[in-house]
Amino acid sequence: MKHNRKPIKNYPTLVIHSTDNSFGFGYRINNNIESDKFFIKKFDNDLCNNLIVEFNKFISKENLQKVNKISVSIGPANFNASRLIVVLARTISQQINCPLDSFSSFEIMAKRIASKNHIFTNKQSFWIYKKLKRKGFIAGKYEIGNDEGDKVNLVIREIVIPKVLKELERKEPFFEADYKDKEDLTELLDLSNKNLLNANINSWKKILPLYPISPIN
User: What percentage of the chain's residues is helix, strand, coil (to nearest 5)?
Assistant: First the structure.
């Protein structure tokens, strides 16, 4: 089911993202990066209440009603933050009857990590990992999916959703997760707009935070 609530030629996109120690919002109109608006803040002692307060400051009720698409990062990142931003995104999506989709935090940073490490060959794969406080890792696998050597229009596919691994097998390149607030919000806006027609108005029901281990880890 395609989303036809508002004219496709005039579509504001809203994204919500969190890292290990911050959260942020992004807003773009008509897929025009010059219209990008961002808010980024480090966690404080009352994330639950402050998330709502800062969101209400970031976007007016009038502009929120115009949003055609919402995308949210689902982790792996700070568990409580991932849970809270997913709840916020689901609630807004349901209330304004707007499609919602999601991307893992590693998928959002994968293009930036691939470019930084000069991984451009079609079908070449690599892993992104985050070391756990105890033993093991959370890691996801990503693959280049564009024309040979095309560094400009780099396309990344997530082929293994981030999961717990006891060890990192060095058969393929591994890179440590590197959260960048503004860069990741910008990429999330790009991914959201590319995926605009693939979400339906009931898609919020399927969006859940991604955290392969219990919060105590």
Answer: 30, 30, 40
Query: Which residue would you say has higher pLDDT here, 180 or 216?
Result: 180
Which domains occur in the chain, in start order?
12-104+179-206 (3.30.420.40), 106-176 (no CATH)
Distance between alpha carbon 23 and the CA centroid of its chain, in Å?
11
Contact criterion met (CB below 8 Å) for 108 and 195: no
pLDDT digits (tens, 9 = 90+) for 61-83: 999 999 999 999 999 999 889 99
Structure-token pair, residue 80: 């409580």
> Mind listing the pLDDT tens digit for each residue in 190-207?
999 888 766 666 677 788
| CA 215 – CA 217 distance, rounded (Å) | 5
> Please, is 120 exposed, middle or buried when counting C-beta atoms within 10 Å of its C-beta (0-12, 13-18, 19+)?
middle
